[in-house]
Amino acid sequence: MSEEGILRIGELSRRVGVSPEVLRAWERRYGVLRPTRSEGGFRLYSTADEERVRRMLALQQQGLSPAVAARTAATEGDGGPAVSALPADTLRQALADALDSFDEASANRVFDRALAVLTLDTLLRRIVLDYLVDLGERWSDGRASVAQEHFATNVLRGRLLGLARDWGQGGGPLALLACPPGELHDLGLICFGLALRAHGWRIAFLGADTPVDTLKHTADNLHPDLVVVTAMIPRRLSQIQAELRAIAGSTRLALAGGGASTAIAASIGAELLDGDPVTQAARIGAAH
Predict the structure, then answer these.
(1) Does 82 map to a domain?
(2) Cα separation of 173 and 139, whole Å?
(3) At what angle are helices 87-100 and 146-163 packed, to 10 degrees?
(4) 4 belongs to a structural domain
(5) pLDDT tens digits for 260-279?
(6) pLDDT at 3 over 70
(7) Quick one: 128 and 227 in the same domain?
(8) Band (95; pLDDT cuts 50, 70, 90)
């Protein structure tokens, strides 16, 4: 791969689909670009620079943070070891092994590693949510114990809420998040809040088992731009349809979780968030 400088930054930008401003930032921060100088003092980039940028972009698409993607692309370009598998797969399995063994210290180390090398969306979707789906399936067919399920969800809940610190601050639109009475599963809702926060929203989180009068009173006081109620079984929502309909009459209301359906949402006058929490947060964030 040639290291001879032959490309001006505008041509490199056109080839890789990245703006010159971003390319210059990557050059300063990560050293992924190594230009030479022309006689006239212009930076000239090589085909090796182009390949490192393309590799960096591919690694970011796989979920690596820009810094880790740049370091990996630079290492591979220098003859270092290639990354042959998405790190999220290995990290998720390591997390599962630690949590299944009630090894909180190891689980925290894995979580810290995931935070360091993955984007937030990838951490939430590929590590936390995928693990929770697998844990739920294993619990339902007897391959995971009640103790393992409680331990794992408590460890993850603590880590996620640590990421949520000060998520109600700022000047963006406000989302009020809650689970209805009797609903104790709020990890998906926390993931949704974290992902929505990344799109500039503020979060007011009431959490699990929220009395419906508390939810309505809080909505009346805070005047949020969005209220999201999530439940795992339909009965949690059908039992409070009248109260939810009253909230929907004055506030944008969305229902989510396995207990939400098109029919229930339509009967209440609410939206249905049908899909994984990170994707739905991105959709709402992009639309506002």
Answers:
(1) no
(2) 37
(3) 130
(4) no
(5) 999 999 999 999 999 899 99
(6) no
(7) no
(8) very high
Q: Label residue 4 by pLDDT band (50, 70, 90).
A: low
| pTM assigned to the model | 0.75
Distance CA 27, CA 9 (A): 11
Domain end among 108, 136, 162: 162
Question: DSSP of 66-121, one letter per residue?
Answer: HHHHHHHHHHHHTT-----S-HHHHHHHHHHHHHHTT-HHHHHHHHHHHHHHB-HH
| Residue-level pLDDT at 275 | 86
Reduced to 3 states, what is the DSSP secondary structure of residue 6?
Answer: coil
Band of residue 241 on the pLDDT scale cut at 50, 70, 90: very high
| Number of domains composing the chain | 3
What is the rounded distance in angstroms from the CA atom of residue 136 to the CA atom of residue 142?
10
Per-residue pLDDT for 38 more than 90? no
CATH number at residue 277: 3.40.50.280
What does the alpha-carbon distance between residue 94 and residue 106 come to, in Å, rounded to a whole number? Answer: 9
Q: Are residues 105 and 70 both part of a single domain?
A: no
Do 111 and 152 lie in one domain? The reply is yes
CATH of the domain at 31: 1.10.1660.10
Tell me which residue range forms the domain holding 63: 9-77
